[in-house]
Request: fold
Amino acid sequence: MTTIEDLLRGLDKVPEEIRLTVRNQGGGHANHQFFWKVIGPARNTKPTGKLAEALTKEFGGLEAFQEKFTDAAVRFFGSGWAFLVINPENKKLEILTLPNQDSVLLHKRPGLLACDIWEHAYYLQYQNRRAEYMTAWWNVVAWDVVSKRLDNFYAGKQQL
Reply:
């Protein structure tokens, strides 16, 4: 059985007549599945271990990372996603914003954290105030899950 993740990783092998549908619908499904795994009830946790070390090394610490990630999400025009990913070539963390339902899998970047920046994610409560949504969103990030995703990458386990 082929998973949506496998289809997106090998999108060039999907028949051309359904490729765009797989990219859009499959990307939306995969992104939402990812998003729901890395958020949850407020836990007042912080990154630990390798994740905390990597955030400090790449961004100058958690607060600096959150500022950069929030800025990227807020400045992104239109609907899409903000991600914390790993560049598999140099093992460095990167912030990546993608339009519409594009998936990190299309860019061969293992994802650690995903934030839905489509208007539907925040409009009812925050209207057009994406920055306020982002401030509140940090309260529901499941840092233990994000840390485990990084550990899994280092262990060679493939994931979205």
